[in-house]
Amino acid sequence: MKLSIEQQAAVNCIGNAYITACPGSGKTRALTARIAKNVQELKHRNNKVLAVTFTNRAANEIKSRLEENYTIESGRIWAGTIHSFALEWIIKPYASYSPPLNAGYSIADEFETRKILNKLKADKGLRVFDEINTTFNRQGVVENSDRRAKEVEQEYRHILKSRKKIDFDQSLYFAFQLMELIPEIAHTLSNIFSNICIDEVQDTQDLQYAILAKIFNESFHKPTLFIVGDGNQAIYGGIGGKSLSLAELNAEFIGSNINYFTFSDNYRSTQRLVDYFSVFRGVQGGLSKAEHKNNQGIISFFNQAVDKDQLAEAIAELIKGELNNGSSENDICVIAPQWAPIRSMTKKLIALLPNVRFDAPALSPFHGQHDNFWLIVSKLALTEPSGRLLSVRVRWANEILNHLSDVYHHTSELTAKKLLKVINSFQSETRIGTEYLKECFEFMLDELDLDLVSDVALKEQFDLFFEKATSNIENNNGQYEDSVVALKSFFKESTGIVVNSCHGVKGEEYKTVIAFGLLKGFIPHWSDIINQPAYVGQNAESKMLYVIASRAKEKLYLFAEYGRRTQGGNPYETSNLLNAYSYQYD
Ligand SMILES: Nc1ncnc2c1ncn2[C@@H]1O[C@H](COP(=O)(O)OP(=O)(O)OP(=O)(O)O)[C@@H](O)[C@H]1O
């Protein structure tokens, strides 16, 4: 992969590196190159490179970029979210030493936690979108300034405890406690991971820094650090993400003496777009070396010009125009700053454009199942054994075998390739999607000599998987009916126009970005406005606009639709910052 001189300097830096640079400047590209270099330089057979980031989508982005650009033995890298890292490498192997966990526990996933929190919020008169903080800091404190939010959080913990469950936030805290209790954990991890690479570091929470720093600080052989991020894109501040300065990172990773780098070029967007979005961080005139340098593209803003009831039609028209002009479905992304309006927009777009494919996580049959073991098996069951997908499918098969052995303590004689053969050989007469998956899972269990009846944890995940998949399919308005063909289409490579939140598409890029819901209350979110000093909202707003606008390579369409009303019946107004931004829109 070609690297600029600045990128090469960072990638080849001896020692530790911290890179902050603007969107599209190639931070993830440099990080991927560094991971590949680190793997090549691993000294011992058992050493690995650790690559962590904040969201599953970002972690998958790193994995795919590595797969597309380098030939690397997958076992030499562990890439994933910090939550999954803590679960897999700290909680699972050491749970028996943890007083809150040693009597048994299981993980409550997003689906379950959301259900409990929503019910408690409703009981307390809070609205679904009122934020409840559930993240712990390294002192074990969960901060909620609102009294009712605090009560919800406490009752939520009681409910989880009564079910012998922990959520992801608790798993981080218990992992950190275990590391404090048993210093050998950090020693062991630093012996395995000779390199620690962190992407999107601005989204990292206090406890996550503490866990990574503990590995570094307690080690005899210091892992090298390669940390990349952009404080101006820190849109997870509401759930504790924080961007650290070089000095703060040096204080966290003791004696790390981190080298600082920045990249000045933008390889993604037209110069016009770079100039446009740079204003959201108070800087004008970023450099651009983008391939679209001479292409001015489009920047349009429909400020209160479209009624919310006609919004889907207006967006559908834009999409049709783009597709007629030669764009592919994968070139287009529709974004809103918050989840609230996305589901109904997706449904309307699907109805208006029945022949267009959409990649809309809100309507996915597997929404909220990221951490369910059976999701990985589904991916194998629902994808074809083609050459193009071979390396990805081998990775999934490895993940299945590792998960079975690390989490469920089932060791198997099978290699990943043999497991692939087993799953590829599965045949069924049924056309019903969930039935097909059930049969396939049972076939695999049989081949692996495993029995669901005797494995409570595996069975619980199995039941939960089907409960959620069925409810997702029932609630998603026919986007994915319960058929084998529809479920298979979900994992096809070209998945269509993305409809997601700005949090969901961080780090990604599209030729055309269509953003809607650019209204005060969504951007910034009410929780950053109500009972907050003005700068909190302004900060959140500029960062979100910065992230949204910088996803575009060539064309940016912005909508602040009229006609939306708050629960109190007041009209939603255009985002302050956008309203005040005087720009020569097309
Ligand atoms: N040296 C380079 N030569 C050609 N293309 C490059 C180069 N560096 C980066 N790119 C391309 O520019 C685009 C943006 O890169 P990348 O996603 O790594 O940026 P980023 O800094 O991580 O962005 P963000 O902050 O938005 O996540 C990608 O398509 C990438 O392949």
Automatic annotation (TrEMBL):
User: Which InterPro entries does the entry mention?
Assistant: DExx_box_DNA_helicase_dom_sf (IPR013986), DNA_helicase_UvrD/REP (IPR000212), P-loop_NTPase (IPR027417), UvrD-like_ATP-bd (IPR014016)
Alphabetic keyword roster: ATP-binding, DNA-binding, Helicase, Hydrolase, Nucleotide-binding
> Where does the UniProt annotation place the signal sequence?
none
Q: Where does ATP bind?
A: A21, C22, P23, G24, S25, G26, K27, T28
Q: What is this protein called?
A: DNA 3'-5' helicase II
Q: Which GO terms describe its molecular function?
A: helicase activity
What the entry lists under Pfam families is as follows: UvrD-helicase
Where would I find the UvrD-like helicase ATP-binding domain in this sequence? Answer: 1-270
Annotated TM spans: none
